[in-house]
Amino acid sequence: MRKIPNHGTLRMTKVAYPLGLCVGLFIYVAYIKWHRASAAQAFFTIAGAASGVRWTQQAFSSPDSATRGHEVFYGIMFDAGSTGTRIHVFQFARPPGETPTLTHETFKALKPGLSAYADDVEKSAQGIQELLNVAKQHIPYDFWKATPLVLKATAGLRLLPGEKAQKLLQKVKEVFKASPFLVGDDCVSIMNGTDEGVSAWITVNFLTGSLKTPGSSSVGMLDLGGGSTQITFLPRVEGTLQASPPGHLTALQMFNRTFKLYSYR
Known about the structure:
- Helix content is 30%, strand content 24%.
- It has helices at residues 18-21, 27-31, 42-52, 121-138, 155-158, 162-177, 193-207, 238-243, and strands at 2-3, 71-80, 85-94, 101-110, 149-153, 188-190, 221-224, 229-233, 249-254, 257-264.
- Its cofactor is Mg(2+); Ca(2+).
């Protein structure tokens, strides 16, 4: 388990957009409504699910939470990429009446990606179960039933024939349903390129604090993945929005603000 710094140099890696794919968790979960049954991301669903549970387990908050009295909650995001499957276990702390802060992340990756098991679906369950065991080790038992669990697949599964991709997703969903965590009907899905880019943008700007402060400068995002590339940013010039094709624009609402993003994939 690693500590998430409150300041300093931010290293944005491929595995980070789950925080987005779980920043992804609370934002995705409390302030953003899963705006397209996909990811603007896992965090939208995870955050929505987490905020919808009025937890009474505060007495069981992790002893390493930053301050006594903070509400502590968790979210689990699986990032099923083209080269591997990664789990992110996120811990959040929320002071009374304030916005949650990401306090810890546990990460583990397995290779190859889910798409490698397109012709052997049963074998794909082994890696998923191994990663779920990581979540069990790092989330207190009393929080399991209230901890949202989501998997978002990216280019690796997008490039597979539809039937093969759906069989893999169904197997993952079966494993998730048998777990002790909070699982919804849309817990497993394939993200399109736009959602992938928007999720990464949310992640990096959540971590830098840009989303919380009106008037603050946001950070653009360029994601060079194993099977796809996305660029997402908040245009500063109105002319950029007016000249952009409709399919490249996304309106996102969070923290009582509207962000008109340009995303290309």
